[in-house]
Write a structure and sequence with these properties.
single chain; about 350 residues; alpha/beta; Rossmann fold; two-stranded antiparallel sheet; 13 helices; about 15% strand; disordered N terminus
Length: about 350
């Protein structure tokens, strides 16, 4: 394949990231969730949504609330329950008898950061109400279209160990989440620090950003240079989930019923831009893509019944993909090659 000539001058060496103070401020309260915090910030910078999965008590909700406090803007939380209806989320039209007319009452979704707590406890009708707003940042109530604030991000949590009263998220909605992050238990050392902070003096986080500042950072991320080799690498990884035999992964041919959509390739590239920005680089590298592959792909692949019966998981498939296609080294014009 012939690549176009580079459209930007050779990039400069890495510099301290301007988003680091936000990360450090959140870490004053949240301990042992470095991977989670990094992915949340990447999603914020890349205008993506995040699904957090973990057992109760791992500070998923506390992390989202702490991040919302530091980045500023309006924050809203919706506790998803089986009796929730779409109007509880997006709003509805109410008849005003005094004026003899209908007025629109907007729902709690009209905020900058929306925490959808235990999202898998709401039925399909409520889940479908999120599809439009997550993709198009607007909702339709009656015949009127209402736009949510900019920036707008959905940070959802779900509990993987409970099945009573839960509804699996439809694939169409899962695909709209940029990342699915698995939140694990803290280490022994981190747990000691967690107990000390929770039982100690109250920690008040400072607000370091506002919606205008976050939009500025998002625009800076959009200017991060992406070499054609990086795009090719992302597309190769995603396409291999749809046609594994063509990419030397014949063993996975019967394991995958459906692979990842092109939205996964887009998220890998846009996420790599944000990750490069956080790492102080004005250009993305293939290893930025590789670092994001598990969180971007794990919820976008549908396994066959035989694969599930054999104990195969999507994370195992991701590991095999990265083993087959490790991040290539490219030279972007300075002494940093990787």
């Amino acid at each position: 394949m012939t690549y176009p000539q580079r459209l930007v001058p050779p990039p400069q060496l890495t510099q301290p990231s301007p988003i680091e103070p936000v990360l450090f401020e959140v870490k004053r309260l949240i301990v042992g969730q470095d991977h989670l915090l990094e992915r949340l910030l990447v999603a914020l910078l890349a205008r993506g949504h995040v699904l957090l999965e973990g057992v109760p008590g791992l500070a998923k909700t506390a992390t989202v609330k702490a991040l919302a406090r530091v980045v500023g803007g309006n924050f809203g939380r919706v506790q998803f329950t089986p009796d929730l209806v779409p109007a509880d989320l997006i709003g509805t039209r109410i008849y005003n008898a005094k004026n003899a007319e209908f007025v629109t009452e907007l729902g709690p979704i009209f905020v900058h950061l929306l925490l959808a707590d235990e999202i898998n406890r709401a039925p399909a009708k409520v889940q479908s109400a999120l599809l439009e707003v997550m993709q198009e940042h607007q909702v339709t109530i009656g015949k009127q279209t209402h736009f949510v604030p900019d920036p707008f991000l959905v940070l959802a949590t779900q509990n993987p160990i409970e099945s009573d009263g839960t509804y699996p998220l439809p694939e169409a909605q899962l695909d709209r989440f940029m990342f699915k992050v698995l939140v694990g238990y803290p280490s022994y050392e981190d747990e000691i620090v967690i107990v000390e902070r929770v039982t100690g003096a109250n920690i008040v986080l400072q607000t370091l950003l506002n919606p205008e500042g976050l939009r500025h950072f998002q625009q800076e991320v959009e200017r991060v240079y992406v070499d054609p080799h990086v795009v090719l690498y992302a597309a190769t990884l995603v396409h291999a989930t749809r046609e594994p035999a063509r990419h030397g992964l014949a063993r996975l041919h019967g394991a995958l019923l459906y692979g990842a959509s092109p939205r996964a390739s887009i998220n890998l590239v846009s996420g790599a831009r944000a990750l490069a920005f956080m790492r102080g680089r004005p250009y993305a590298l293939p290893r930025d893509v590789a670092d994001l592959v598990p969180d971007v792909l794990r919820h976008r692949m549908v396994l066959s019944y035989e694969a599930v019966a054999d104990g195969l998981t999507t994370d195992m498939i991701v590991a095999e993909l990265l083993q087959r296609f490790p991040p290539p080294h490219i030279d972007l014009g300075d002494r940093y090659v990787g």
